[in-house]
Records
---
Amino acid sequence: MATSEFGLAETYSNDLLWRRYLELTKPKVVALILFTALVGMLLATPGMVPLSTLFFGLLGIGLCAGAGAALNHVIDRRVDALMDRTRRRPLPSGDLDARHAVAFALGMAAVSMLVLTVFVNPLTALLTFAAFIGYAVIYTIYLKRATPQNIVWGGIAGAMPPLLGWTAVTGEIAVEGLLLALLVFIWTPPHFWALAIKRRAEYARADIPMLPVTHGLTYTKLQILIYSLLLLWVSLLPFLIHMSGRLYLLGALGLGLGFVYQAVRLLRSESDARAMKTFGYSILYLSVLFVFLVADHYLGSV
């Protein structure tokens, strides 16, 4: 559907237009962000999270995450047009224009900061804004195009949600909240590099220096294995510092060894299908690991 750079297509139906704006926010990514933030909230208190903190905290964090995703769409719109995975997104497809997308993103970011500052606490608002700048500006504009370690350093912003959940409840930064962020930080590179193996030709065409493009498949697979081993060790720290008990320990060991197994099979395989299986397992890993954290927190050790 044709449209100018600064004008929406007049024929684009209103009933579909809101879906394209929703797509700008990367709702599946935001859902995972909100899940890890929720876990941070639940682990920060022995009882239930106050409903106002739960609602406004998740609302503010979700709005800011969606705003960052929308700016990512704007900044990457020309690169997205070169990649099969992203060329149907709202901006490269011409369904939305950059001006409206920027206004939409900045509006969400402003509402997010207002909600978090007024109804949660200033620390959570400040950390959420820092994560927003880290992802939408530092990672998307600079790191993504500057270094094959882009996803490692960019992962700092992506690791913030569980810490944000923790600070939303407690109003302070604690070792436990930082450890939750560390788990996501270590998990991010092997998760994303597995997908990058599958999409390496598209990244090369878009001139994005992802690790499989700059260093080859074998090196990338070895890095995934190294990070999966590191993740296994880091995932034991909640038990070692007495943040969690034996129920979590059993879950972390089983899931971590499963990730290492997936990484070993990927290293030995020549098939891109194995990379996508590793990518799929990584999503399952993080989700279930955080479920074990919550279950252990409320049910206690076995």
---
Amino acid sequence: MSDRFQFSVLATDGRARTGVINTPRGDIRTPAFMPVGTAATVKAMMPESVRATGADILLGNTYHLMLRPGAGRIARLGGLHRFMNWPRPILTDSGGFQVMSLSSLRKLTEEGVTFSSHVDGSKHFLSPETSMEIQRQLGSDIVMAFDECPALPASEEEVAKSMRMSMRWAQRSRDAFGDRPGHALFGIMQGGVTRELREESAEALKSIGFDGYAIGGLAVGEGQEAMFGVLDYAPGCLPDDKPRYLMGVGKPDDIVGAVVRGVDMMDCVLPSRSGRTGQAWTRRGQVNIKNARHADDPRPLDEACTCPACTGYSRAYLHHVFRAGEMISGMLLTWHNLHYFQELMEGLRQAIAAGTLAEFVTEFEAMRAQGDIEPL
């Protein structure tokens, strides 16, 4: 592998950017959507199928992998890429968000977090240093700094206290990460929905220096209007020559709104989670395949889609296999959803490069406003 990690902006349209992140394991076209492979797998998908949808990079979860099967075991088996048969770039989160959201028993101090596993109740400790070591053992290409994401709602005083500790942890993450050629470390901006706190966080991160910068603490229940309110200024607080990653987003209209506001990378479990629960995302919006209206419908989910679910199967079949509890239901719907999300990203990249993003957004919104096709 070559020793390189760099980001190039190739074109802009307003605040939106399209470019490429060069990594030793391959290039990541931006804006990029990262499918989530929580436990070293994108649920219901083979790795080569995920790649066929257009994904350049996957996300893995440090918290889940450290608990099962364990970072040391993955390292002994050749690292996460070999373990899950994904030779392309992988980003791993730090584990901080999952500790806060999944562990009912935890103790937070300046040093780190002691918590009980949601799997078996065993005790564990995560700090900036241990998170960096676990992610090193996993071998991820993009490593996230360890931070705290406070539960909302929270007072501005609580958000400020949490953000400042996360900035101290960011410095410790940077120190513990060290010099790892070919690997990148991203810092995470916090500060809730308060502009002054977000700006303070951005300045702290820039003074430390990272290979990329994430916007954390959004898409956690504050609503799209509040999220877009933060994104109206937050990306501009971060360096122009580094990737900007909005964590945990999102629905297609969230993605489009974030890209318009200058975001380069996103991730979300929505395409796979929706697929397993009978929900399909299309150009016309969301389709609930569980509904009886699809039982006799020979048409595809989306006549313009080229994924296997749409080119080989009818709505009637997808309705049947979901109702019958067949595994192929989650497989086909997840493939379709991931295909649609990656198709959306490719459309955004092309529109930015052509300077036609406004027209793309207008068409995107008009198609969604039409709603699903009428029942037969």
---
Amino acid sequence: MSDLLEGTSAVDVHCHGWRSDEVAALPQRGFLDRITMLGMCLVSSGLEDEGLREILELTTDTAPIAVAMADRLGAILGCEPTRDGLAAARTAALGDHRAYLRRLWADAGVDDLVMDDGYPLPRIDGRALGEEVGLRVHRVCRIEPIITEARDAAGSYAELADAFTTGLEEAVADGSIAFKSVIAYRTGLDVAEWSPSDCEAAFARWRSDGWTETREHAKPVRDALLRRALAVARGAGIPVHIHCGGGDPAIVLEHARPSDLFPVLAAHMDQPVVLIHSGWPWVEEGAFVASILPHVYLDTSLSTPWASLAIDSRLEILLGIAPPAKVMYGSDEASEPEVIWLSAHLAREALARVLETGVERRQLNRAAAARIGADVMGGNARRLHGLGAPG
């Protein structure tokens, strides 16, 4: 195994919080199911039920990420890498979850989490979570919950926009290091420009329709508020993270590609925007956009860790097309905290293999390869978000 990136610190630039008591209370035999892409998406979209249990367990048993988790976590916990073995050992470990999770972070070299606070809801206090589990947790404020909180009390689009702006400004004052939007799950990434009268009329239709998410009613309002968020972020000097690409079954897949968002990105060329997931599965498209627009950044999540056997090829595309200084490691952990640990290992190992290949092909020297790897794993995220040095 390559030692190119040995000792590098990881900043997970895209993950989600958890409540450790809830994690411990879940059926532990279903742990491996919940860390697969299918299992995680079914949970996050509210579609998990007993009718899907047979197919979920079948797919988990053959999923490389589940095999890797079972083998590696089994070695850490000293148990058999089976559902029953992990269930018993993990139950015992979570009895002292603070010590257990700190052991995992040290093993994987994870120092900082950049936490999207929009899932799960109610919002998780990142500072409290960080103190509990021994990490520095930095808040990314998702804008959609602010829209939901403000719209019921608003009598017009103008009132909604004002309340929304206030909510964003309060998040900045509270220490948020970025805003995040999942408009791709609501009305799509083809964000248009709308007049104030268009927004007022759409708001009225949307409210009378019981806030049903439709492109006819909700889209003008959500498009305008995303542009408002970009303006507030510019004034605050923070980046905007935008979910770009596929996701769980709620995604508006026909309007989720990086090319759909390109007009907005081009219009805000001097403002840092992170394409969360790099446009997965259209990572070539996302990497191309980042290669021609100076302040478009990419995170590796979904490619890491769920591309499993294809992680190396995804990283080759991202680092071969986009400037490596704009690629940041992320896990998109949204189910079990052990995903943060496993993902950091898998990403660092795959990144080292890809960079070693670059050295072998004389496209990189070893010093440059090590510097690129350390920056992707943490340095780029620290620089973009103004984070401190590794602890």
